[in-house]
Amino acid sequence: VDDIVHAISILISKGYFVNLLAFSGKREEILNKSVAKRVNSIMCLCVLHEGNAENILHALKNSNLVIAMRFHALVLSMHYGTPVYSIAYSEKTEDLCRRLGLSNYCQKVCFSRSEYYSKILQLDSTLLLNGIASIEKMNKMEKSKISEKFNEIQEQLDCDISEFIASLFPE
Question: What proportion of the chain, given as a percentage, has pLDDT over 70?
Fold first, then answer.
């Protein structure tokens, strides 16, 4: 958690406003509140799920940058065209970043989802901040290409799913 607090403090010093979003309930909300308390800045707030996905979706859609620690945050950020740096604890997250050519914007942490809350997150804040600096340097054309690639993958998945469903339920 120290590395997360350090990275957030640096982002705030650069003028970023930081929202900590919880995707899966109380445990993440508790972690986010702990981080926000340690950061101790009006520039760092927790956006609570509170049974209303609109809070989270609004924050993702209107952010200048997302640091995603959840697959869903990564996918939704890309869907909205929001620049994203991913902290991946799962193969699916790492794989999506690789398929989109975003491996430089993805940091693998060394534990599985089942260990997510029981282990201490070993985050390389220098790697994170360097990745964010690279994202900041991207021009609109590069960001647009990432969105286009994501949309291509999304369309392919839609086709694959349709074919799969059709194979399960032939007419």
Answer: 88
Model pLDDT for residues 148-160, shown as the tens digit of each residue = 777 787 787 777 7
Read off φ and ψ for residue 89, nearest 5 degrees: -110, 0
Question: Is residue 4 a contact partner of residue 35, using CB atoms and an 8 Å limit?
Answer: yes
CA 87 to chain centre: 7
* Six token digits for residue 118: 């029981």
Euclidean distance between CA atoms 66 and 53, whole angstroms: 17
Q: Are 25 and 49 in contact (CB under 8 A)?
A: yes
Which amino acid is located at 142 in the chain? E
- Which tokens go with 125? 């804040």
